[in-house]
Design goal:
Blueprint: E1 4-7, H1 17-30, H2 48-58, H3 66-84, H4 91-100, E2 104-109, H5 113-122, E3 131-134, H6 146-154, E4 162-166, H7 169-177, E5 181-184, E6 201-202, H8 211-216
Parallel strand pairs: 1-2, 1-4, 2-3, 4-5, 5-6
Length: about 220
């Protein structure tokens, strides 16, 4: 029986996903890093410090270190998110519903902890979560299941009693690899991806989320 619900952050709780590409390109141009948007697919699923380390090897530049560039990207994505991002439709209602019905609630994101902490605090979401974990505290990020397994461990939950809410293919793979149920909430451009047919459920937004869905899993 499902007793634990784990949320991703970017693209699921907050509409921050488009800001990542925009900020990364701006910072790369500032440092004369020869990266373009079509090359982002080379680093899909990597954590931000891994992304800039990859750039340093594949597209070397002079000046700031890979870590300094990653920190600059983080500073700017946090600020841009505070100014321009919003809480996704249905998020508050879903969290309130889970709280009222005594589900354990976790946040498990690939974003660094300082970004997660600043944004869930800024958008007044932090109090909903019993546990918040970042993939920067585990050896491997999504699509590896480590971050979801860590969240389940800290919540004292059996992975088979957990459901993951995700919007990305890497999150989907991580949830399935953790032996958890996965509910996909992809954006409109990715909604019909054939891979998501393997999800346990698929929603157009969290507005459609309800307890009947969990009980049916």
């Amino acid at each position: 029986m499902i007793d634990t619900v784990l949320f991703d952050m970017d693209g699921l709780l907050l509409d921050t996903e488009p800001l990542w590409g925009e900020v990364m390109l701006d910072v790369a141009r500032r440092h004369n890093i020869p990266i373009s948007g079509d090359r982002f697919k080379e680093t899909t699923g990597l954590r931000i410090y891994e992304v800039t380390e990859y750039w340093a090897v594949k597209y070397p530049w002079q000046g700031s270190t890979a870590r300094e560039v990653a920190d600059e990207i983080l500073d700017e994505i946090i600020e841009a998110s505070k100014q321009r991002a919003t809480v996704m439709p249905g998020v508050i209602a879903a969290l309130e519903l889970l709280k009222e019905n005594n589900y354990k609630i976790g946040l498990a994101s690939s974003s660094p902890m300082r970004m997660i902490d600043e944004l869930v605090t800024f958008f007044n979401l932090k109090h909903y979560f019993d546990v918040i974990v970042s993939a920067d505290t585990v050896e491997l990020g999504k699509p590896h299941p480590a971050v979801f397994l860590l969240a389940a461990k800290e919540l004292k939950s059996n992975p088979i009693n957990c459901v993951v809410l995700e919007d990305s293919i890497n999150g989907f793979l991580a949830g399935k690899s953790a032996r958890m149920k996965v509910i996909m909430v992809p954006d409109v451009l990715n909604y019909h991806k054939p891979e998501f047919m393997l999800a346990d459920a698929k929603l157009t937004s969290l507005v459609e989320f309800d307890l009947e869905l969990l009980k049916a899993l």
